[in-house]
Amino acid sequence: MKYLTVVRHAKSSWTQSGLADHDRPLNERGLVAAPAMASFLHRTYFGGGENEALIPPPERLVTSTAARALATARIMQEVASMPLESLILDSSLYLAEAPRILNVVRQLDEEWKHVMLFGHNPGLHDFAERILARAHVPKMPTCTAVLLALPHAYWGLTDWGEAQLIGYVTPKALERRFPELYAGISRADGED
């Protein structure tokens, strides 16, 4: 079995006119939500702190080269104290559609049991929807994580409609469930 966690980048800034889309940085909310999500995933699912791991911790973080996705992945790397070589940049993930994301997954190193993949909507949401066997991911606001179990021992066998949903975590859900820990990581109006 393989494990795949797909993460949409944290909220980015549109304030710098003339800046290419690829180079947009995280905004203030993104800089708060990304470490909160990273900490929650690390402690709750990956065995960080005093908790037992629910799934193996990720060995690699594969990310789009866009500044906002890379910054989100780096925050996860830092929170989980992962080595620098665990971060892999893949330019083909920038604004990738679902079939391209599937191709990236199929080419992952077979020695890795769990990989986190950082990217963009709408392709990432479409990928999550299409790869799941029975579950449904209603939407993927910024900084959402979808944790998946793949039924094969090899990444190369990954295909549509086979994954099992382990977790679906949004900033809004964290803020509602743990307001004392995660206040201000999602929009007040409920739309991310």
What does it look like?
- By secondary structure, the protein is an alpha/beta fold.
- The protein has helices at residues 28-44, 67-79, 98-106, 123-131, 171-177, 179-182; strands at 2-8, 60-63, 87-89, 114-119, 145-150, 164-169.
- A six-stranded mixed sheet has the order 3-2-4-1-5-6, with helices on both faces.
- Helix 1 crosses helix 2 and helix 3 crosses helix 4.
- The chain starts with a strand and ends in a 10-residue tail after the last helix.
Secondary structure: elements and pairs:
Layout: E1 2-8, H1 28-44, E2 60-63, H2 67-79, E3 87-89, H3 98-106, E4 114-119, H4 123-131, E5 145-150, E6 164-169, H5 171-177, H6 179-182
Parallel strand pairs: 1-4, 2-3, 2-4
Antiparallel strand pairs: 1-5, 5-6
Helix pairs in contact: 1-2, 3-4
